[in-house]
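Appendix B: a complete holo record

For completeness, this appendix reproduces one full record from the ligand-bound portion of the collection. The bound molecule is flavin mononucleotide. The inputs are the chain sequence and the ligand SMILES; the output is the full three-dimensional arrangement of the complex, encoded as structure tokens. No fields have been trimmed.
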Amino acid sequence: MAGLLRHAGGGPFFVTFKEAFMDIVGICGSLRGQSINRMLLNLAGDCLPAGATLDVLAWDEVPAFNSDVLAKGLPPAVATLRERIRRADAVIIATPEYNFSIPGMLKNAIDWVSRGDDQPLLNKPVAILSATPGPLGGARVQYDLRKVLLFMNAAVLVKPEVFVGFAHQKFDAEGQCTDSTTRGFVQSQMDALVRHTKLQQQLQQLQKLA
Ligand SMILES: Cc1cc2nc3c(=O)[nH]c(=O)nc-3n(C[C@H](O)[C@H](O)[C@H](O)COP(=O)(O)O)c2cc1C
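The structure of the chain with flavin mononucleotide bound, as generated:
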């Protein structure tokens, strides 16, 4: 999204960054149609500033991870998922908590994405949100997911964290958020993600010049 211009000649070296479009992909950790985490992901997309877009990915055809399958080549659904993440400026993951941890299908998809030196989450800005009908809002799944993503050297946004407890009371039948406090937390996180993404991209550009 940020184009780096290098100015040399005459004065001291300096760089400027040109504002441009920001392409963000969303991954919902739940595959069910009426997922409250998908509603939360959509809310995150609504909170992005002009010039940033959210593309919620369909990844339900990713097969069970199997090294024997990988040895024959990436399955098409995995290759598509990896390339879409690679092209994106940032990733937003909204997920439920299953048995105090990461839903198996989501962990399986991340395991596929994690293989190889060219794994696309390397240095990729990632924001995590979670929603549950219970009171804790997925507090435990977030730390497991954060641990996995940090191992992959993703640039996971630290704060603000967004845990939406009693989430079924905070979205209406059309999936719209009815709770201004939730909307405010998500807005703050999306503002932070955009700043974080710009900073990461500037750092990477400077590393290339160094
Ligand atoms: C297999 C399974 C395990 C679950 N474990 C937890 C849990 O550990 N903590 C929790 O708060 N909710 C748990 N739940 C309830 C989910 O938070 C709830 O079903 C939620 O609506 C799922 O998210 P979704 O609406 O995005 O599909 C579990 C649900 C399932 C199906």
